[in-house]
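wait is this the right file?? whatever heres the structure
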């Protein structure tokens, strides 16, 4: 959410009515999240001036770890230098920290491609935004999931009950520090996640949703403490011992 929001902001800056705007002080502390959108706190540290040049060698974009040779345009400006500077800063201050770690496994290659393409400035801001929107579409639509349900058959569903929220085993990237609360596309995906975690014995799909509209599922190490709830369903892992208990 943070990276996509940043890319939308940089897309706006690259095509602003004032020309392509570069952020001069590109530190994470210069940004704030307001209602899920990233905003720049101080536009005084921004410029629309694009570097003037006589030849290509005047147009090197320098960073501590890397330099990029750019072209000098016929009007004597370094082509796209503001957009490229913003994008590489987004890569080094945000993408490298945030993109690799929390996506479902099937979406990780798409994020690696974005990381690689922005890290080498092979993408401009337009392609970067397009690539992010594609990942978001796959994520929201569930198209990244396996087509055939495989995991739900390992569970017994108990309608009219839910588990009590209490401290339980932790997982990453959980939405709650008390236990394992993850966003899922479907009950089937929740079952696949529960199967992949040896502590998990049961789960419920809660009424809460994330910014993408995906519901949060709560995973638990045992289905004790069931309470009646007409709208809920508890899914309990089938195994020799739970079979006996039920
Ligand atoms: C992108 O991938 C190529 C080929 O694997 C690699 O040589 C290059 O270092 C990568 N760039 C970044 C920024 O990760
Ligand atoms: C990027 O998108 C903007 C806005 O849609 C468009 O005006 C511009 O021509 C595009 N630039 C490139 C290099 O495709």
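ok assuming it is, sequence goes like this
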């Amino acid at each position: 959410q943070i990276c996509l929001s940043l890319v939308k902001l940089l897309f706006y800056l690259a095509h602003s009515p004032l020309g392509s705007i570069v952020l001069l002080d590109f530190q994470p502390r210069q940004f704030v999240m307001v209602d899920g959108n990233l905003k720049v706190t101080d536009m005084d540290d921004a410029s629309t001036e694009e570097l003037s040049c006589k030849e290509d060698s005047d147009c090197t974009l320098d960073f501590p770890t890397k330099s990029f040779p750019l072209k000098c345009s016929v009007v004597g400006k370094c082509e796209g230098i503001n957009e490229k500077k913003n994008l590489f800063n987004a890569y080094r201050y945000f993408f490298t920290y945030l993109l690799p770690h929390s996506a479902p496994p099937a979406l990780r290659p798409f994020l690696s491609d974005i990381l690689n393409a922005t890290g080498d400035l092979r993408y401009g801001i337009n392609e970067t935004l397009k690539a992010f929107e594609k990942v978001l579409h796959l994520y929201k639509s569930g198209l990244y999931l396996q087509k055939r349900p495989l995991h739900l058959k390992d569970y017994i569903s108990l309608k009219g009950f839910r588990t009590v929220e209490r401290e339980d085993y932790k997982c990453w990237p959980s939405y709650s520090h008390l236990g394992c609360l993850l966003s899922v596309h479907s009950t089937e995906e929740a079952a696949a996640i529960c199967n992949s975690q040896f502590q998990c014995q049961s789960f419920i799909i809660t009424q809460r949703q994330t910014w993408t509209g995906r519901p949060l599922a709560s995973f638990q190490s045992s289905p004790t403490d069931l309470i009646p709830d007409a709208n809920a369903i508890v899914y309990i892992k089938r195994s020799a011992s739970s079979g006996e208990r039920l």
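The CA atoms of residues 59 and 117 lie 20 Å apart. so i think its the right one actually
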